[in-house]
Amino acid sequence: MENNKATLELGTKPVGPLLMQYALPAIIAMTASSLYNMVDSIFIGQGVGAMAISGLALTFPFMNLAAAFGAAVGVGASTCISVRLGQKDYEAAERVLGNTVTLNLIIGISFSVISLLFLNPILYFFGASEQTLPYARDYMEVILAGNVFSHMYFAMNAVLRAAGKPRQAMYATMFTVVMNTILAPIFIYPLNLGIRGAAYATIIAQMMALVWQMRLFSNKDELLHLKRGIYRLQGRIVKAIIAIGMSPFAMNVCACVVVIFINNGLQKYGGDLAVGAYGIANKVCFIFVMITMGINQGMQPIAGYNYGAQLMDRLMKVVKYAIIAGTVVTTAGFAIAELLPGPCARLFTTDPTLIALSVEGLMIEMLAFPIVGYQMVVTSFFQSIGKAKVSMFLSLSRQLIFLLPLLAVLPPIYGVDGVWWAMPISDTVAAVVTFFMMMSYMRKFKKMTIK
Q1: What pLDDT does 2 receive?
Q2: Taking a C-beta distance cutoff of 8 angstroms, is the pair 349, 362 a contact?
């Protein structure tokens, strides 16, 4: 009954407080998640060395690729569930939950097996050198071995939010952060496991959180719960999940491709430490990106439900509030990057050369951040209401259509600076395209509201 009430309030409670109710736990969870990633980097940089930071940076494409498959299922499933709940089709929502579990098992295991078989060639392709390969390999062997648990953990958190349980999703994420912070220094220092220790801490923390999530979904009193008969893959459900999930999938695959180009460009024109500098700058950016993603995650079930219920006035309000919040967050990130780049870099390393490279890269990379928040929220909004093609186009415009050509053209002319400057230039152009796309759809939604 309580869960029914939580679901129904998505279409009745005032939009502002509702967005805060859903977004705040997601923001806390995503902030915790970004700190979770930073913890590994800080312990690795301070405890293993500068070259280990570069090795860790080489794993970004792998992590993006794994996230791509996870998002294709997790985001697609959570959106389908939100819309089904808005339509009050609870049985269909439950079948989506079961198919989500099965898809994650299949994809998670397959990704791990294939990646482990070709790990060295893949890492060299990602920009590894003889010096950085051992660190990247040690880290990824552990991460890939536990990849199926990571996939399931992230997917179940997305479903928790869609099912009206944002606080439980937040608790799961915060738990993993706390456990990772406790375990990482133990594995790295006293147990002397080095970069592998950080990976073990990550996987163990996620496995423990997943056990708790599965207990929540095993409760028969919940509106959505695990039971017999819902795990068999159904073509219609799988197709719907993948169709919506293709946008975040494409976004993460593009991020993977982009990072490969960035790593290779930095390696070619600046060496291993330039790759490490990107790793540090990316971690700082990641904090504000994840907070904005928290806002998006809070918006997603509200937008999905109200779109499904054809409550267009509420739909437009929630995207407006989310855009304002996202812009405030990324503008704050811009200010910190421009005013405090030195302290940010010194969190991760004591190497003076790496600090200097990180400061310069961070200041350039985040120059266009005040408008990145808007672009992220609008892309997520279209994804939340099932406009997969629009969302995918906007994702591709930022990471593929504009950034990759710039990464091909600028570095041969300007060297390392060309790699860094390609990022804010592409962000600016993509934000302009997003603005015009959003204005076009806002006019359509207003007409639907008047009717």
Answers
A1: 46
A2: no
> What is the rounded radius of gyration, in angstroms, for the C-alpha atoms of the chain?
21
Tokens of 71: 């998002």
25 or 171, greater pLDDT: 171
User: How far is 403 from 433, CA to CA, in rounded Å?
Assistant: 14
Closest CA to 174 of 347, 53, 64, 294: 294
CA dist 228 and 97 (Å) reads 12
Q: Within 13 Å, how many C-alpha atoms sit on residue 122's CB side?
A: 19
Query: In this model, does residue 1 exceed pLDDT 50?
Result: no
**Tokens read off for 282:** 């990316």
Domain that holds residue 388: 12-450
Residue 118 has a pLDDT of: 93
The mean pLDDT of the chain is 84
> Is 42 among the domain residues?
yes
Residue 88 pLDDT greater than 80, yes or no: no
Q: Classify residue 4: in a domain, yes or no.
A: no
Q: Using alpha carbons only, give the angle 122, 126, 130 rounded to the nearest 5 degrees.
A: 85
Q: What 3-state class would DSSP assign to 316? A: helix
Q: Whole-prediction pTM value?
A: 0.75
Q: What are phi and psi of 194, to 5 degrees?
A: 60, -140
List the end-to-end C-alpha distance of the chain, in Å, as a whole number: 33
Considering its fold, how many domains does the chain have in total? 1
Instruction: Decide if 366 is inside a domain.
Output: yes
- DSSP track, 352-413: HHHHHHHHHHHHHHTTTHHHHHHHHHHHHHHHHTT-HHHHHHHHHIIIIITHHHHHHHHHHH
Q: What is the mean pLDDT of residues 147-158?
A: 86
In a domain, 311, yes or no: yes
- The answer to whether 34 and 286 are in contact (CB under 8 A) is yes
Vertex 226 angle, CA 220 and 232, to 5°: 145
For residue 366, the model assigns a pLDDT of 94
What is the per-residue pLDDT for 31?
79
CB 369 within 8 A of CB 334: yes
